[in-house]
C-alpha cells in the first residue's frame, strides 16, 4: 500500500462480472482479451469520464459509449398520426409561436412608436425575442421539443430527429400561430401597428440582397447549431443539468443574432415570424424580399445540421472506420 500519494483519479479494472453466459466471468458478447476500465474520482467515488473504454492487450483503447443515441426517426411514420401526443405537440407549437409573435411584434411596435428618449430600443427588442424563446422552449420542450421555428424543425428533420409528417405539421402550426399572433397585435394596436411597418422583415436599403441573405444564413446557422449542441445526447448523459439549461443558450443565441442583424434585415432567422408579419401587414414592402427569409434560414439550418452531424459527431467517418473521434464532448 502506497501512502502519501496525491492523485485525483483511480483506475478501477473490472475483471469479473456477475452475469455471464460463457463461464469465464465476462458478460456475453465480450472478447476474452479485453478488460473494461472505468475512471473514478478518488474522493467522491463518482465516475469522471463521459465514456468508458475498452483496452486490449497491446494498450489500444476504444471508446465505449455509456449513453444511447436515439434511433433515427422514420422518414414517413403513420403510427404517430393516431397518437394524442402527436396532436398535443402540434397544438403546443401553434400556441408557442402565437405567443412568441404577439410579444415580440408588440415590442417592436412599442419601440417604433416610443419617443426618442423612451422605449427599450434595439437592445430591448433583442431581449424580447431571446427571452421569449428561452421561456417558450423551456415550457414546450417536454411536449413538442420546443421548435417554434420552421428552420429549426427543418434542421432536425435533416438530422433524422423528427419524421416528415411531424415536420410538415409543425411548420404549418408554426406559420398559422405566427399569423394569429401578429393578428392580435394589429387588432389591439391598429394605428400604431401600421405606423411601425407591421414589424415586417425587409432588407435595409443600405445593404444588398446578397448581404441580407448572408445575414439570414449565418444567423440561422448560429441558432440551429446551438440547438444541436444544447440537446446533444452525449452531453446530456455526461451532465444531468444540461437538459434543464438547454433553453438558456438557445435564447441567448437568438438574442445575440438579433443584436447583429436587426440593422440589416430586421432579423428573420424564423420563416414563420417573417410570414406572419408579411401576411398581416400585407404591403408590397413586406413581400419584396420575402424569399430571403425562407431561403436564408433553411440554408443556414441545413448547414448547421450537416456540420453537427457529419463533422462534430463524425458519424459518417466513424461508420467508414477512417478514424476514431477523440472528442470528449
UniProtKB/TrEMBL annotation:
Residues 47-68 have a biased composition (Basic and acidic residues). Pfam families: MIP (PF00230). It is a multi-pass membrane protein. It comes from the Eukaryota. GO terms for cellular component: membrane. GO terms for molecular function: channel activity. InterPro entries: Aquaporin-like (IPR023271), Aquaporin_transptr (IPR034294), MIP (IPR000425), MIP_CS (IPR022357). It is found in: Membrane. SUPFAM superfamilies: Aquaporin-like (SSF81338). Keywords: Membrane, Transmembrane, Transmembrane helix, Transport. Residues 47-72 are annotated as: Disordered. Its main location: membrane. The chain crosses the membrane at residues 90-112, 124-146, 167-188, 212-230, 242-264, 291-312. Belongs to the MIP/aquaporin (TC 1.A.8) family. PIP (TC 1.A.8.11) subfamily. This is Uncharacterized protein.
Amino acid at each position: 500500500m502506497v501512502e502519501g500519494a496525491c492523485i485525483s483519479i483511480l483506475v478501477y479494472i473490472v475483471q469479473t462480472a456477475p452475469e455471464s453466459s460463457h463461464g469465464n466471468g465476462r458478460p456475453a458478447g465480450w472478447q476474452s482479451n479485453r478488460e473494461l476500465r472505468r475512471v473514478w474520482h478518488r474522493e467522491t467515488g463518482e465516475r469522471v469520464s463521459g465514456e468508458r473504454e475498452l483496452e486490449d492487450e497491446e494498450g489500444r483503447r476504444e471508446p465505449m459509449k455509456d449513453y444511447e443515441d436515439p434511433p433515427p426517426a422514420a422518414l414517413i411514420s403513420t403510427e404517430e398520426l393516431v397518437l394524442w401526443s402527436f396532436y398535443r405537440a402540434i397544438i403546443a407549437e401553434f400556441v408557442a409561436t402565437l405567443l412568441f409573435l404577439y410579444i415580440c411584434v408588440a415590442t417592436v411596435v412599442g419601440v417604433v412608436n416610443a419617443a426618442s428618449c423612451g422605449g427599450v430600443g434595439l437592445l430591448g427588442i433583442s431581449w424580447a425575442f431571446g427571452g421569449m424563446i428561452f421561456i417558450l422552449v423551456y415550457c414546450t420542450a417536454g411536449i413538442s421539443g420546443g421548435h417554434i421555428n420552421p428552420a429549426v424543425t427543418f434542421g432536425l428533420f435533416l438530422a433524422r430527429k423528427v419524421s416528415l409528417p411531424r415536420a410538415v405539421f409543425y411548420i404549418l402550426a408554426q406559420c398559422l400561430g405566427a399569423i394569429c399572433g401578429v393578428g392580435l397585435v394589429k387588432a389591439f394596436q391598429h394605428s400604431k401597428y401600421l405606423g411601425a411597418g407591421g414589424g415586417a422583415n425587409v432588407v435595409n436599403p443600405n445593404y444588398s440582397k446578397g448581404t441580407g441573405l448572408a445575414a439570414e444564413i449565418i444567423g440561422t446557422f448560429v441558432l440551429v447549431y446551438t440547438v444541436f449542441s444544447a440537446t446533444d445526447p452525449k452531453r446530456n448523459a455526461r451532465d444531468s443539468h444540461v437538459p434543464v439549461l438547454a433553453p438558456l443558450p438557445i435564447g441567448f443565441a437568438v438574442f445575440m443574432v438579433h443584436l447583429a442583424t436587426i440593422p440589416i434585415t430586421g432579423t428573420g432567422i424564423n420563416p414563420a415570424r417573417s410570414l406572419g408579419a408579411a401576411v398581416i401587414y400585407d404591403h408590397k414592402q413586406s413581400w419584396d424580399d420575402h424569399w430571403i427569409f425562407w431561403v436564408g434560414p433553411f440554408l443556414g439550418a441545413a448547414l448547421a445540421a450537416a456540420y453537427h452531424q457529419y463533422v462534430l459527431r463524425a458519424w459518417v467517418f466513424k461508420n467508414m472506420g477512417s478514424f476514431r473521434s477523440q472528442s470528449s464532448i
